[in-house]
Amino acid sequence: MKRVAKGRASGRALPWVIGAVLVLVAGVVTAATPPEQALLDPFVVRGAADGGPATSRTLAAVVVDVTRTEQVTMTDEEWEAEGNWLVVELAVSAPTTEVDAAIGVASLLIDGRVFQASERPPATLVATDLRVGTDTVGMLAFELPDELRSGVGELRLSGRYPTPELDDVIAFRVDLDQASTAPSVEIEAPRLGTP
């Protein structure tokens, strides 16, 4: 009699154990599944820590110089602006085709904030057509809040589309504390050639 009662008790517990295991597995799957928005996020291609190049589907880029300054100018355009500026010089080209080969969006992510490359300078690398096998050297200028003078951020470059879904985005580490400083930086128009 006791054996039969024991078998029935374990037979009743088995569905509860299986149910608990299934609930646990469902919880793990739910936690591991990315949010719906993340399913369309771009793929980040990071440049080497030593400042080496990074290549995406439409861009190949390398950071040439990063400078903090209080004034940016363009002599040819008789234009200048004062403030807290970060100027990034890049050498950029098209890796395989010139179709859609241009920096459409350049942004700096730092301290949880996003800053777009300024449109105030009359000529920067944004929207400049790129060539295969030949670098285009130019500059991006970021106007930062006055209090933002240190920290580590990330420079992100993407193609012609402002929200690159399921495409790749180039990212470079930018350390404001390690950037060179100058009282004034002249923004040069993009040019073909080497830095």
Describe, in plain words, how this protein is organized in 3D.
- The chain is of the alpha+beta class.
- The chain has one helix at residues 2-32, and strands at residues 43-46, 54-55, 60-74, 79-93, 105-110, 113-116, 136-144, 152-158, 168-175, 180-182, 185-186, 191-192.
- The longest helix is centred in the first third of the chain and has 31 residues, at 2-32.
- The protein is elongated and about 90 Å long.
Describe the protein's topology:
Layout: H1 2-32, E1 43-46, E2 54-55, E3 60-74, E4 79-93, E5 105-110, E6 113-116, E7 136-144, E8 152-158, E9 168-175, E10 180-182, E11 185-186, E12 191-192
Parallel strand pairs: 1-9, 3-10, 3-11
Antiparallel strand pairs: 2-3, 3-4, 4-7, 5-6, 5-8, 7-12, 8-9
Strand content: 35-45%
Annotation, overall tally of beta strands: 12
Average pLDDT metric: 87
Output the radius of gyration.
26 Å
Termini separation comes to 91 Å
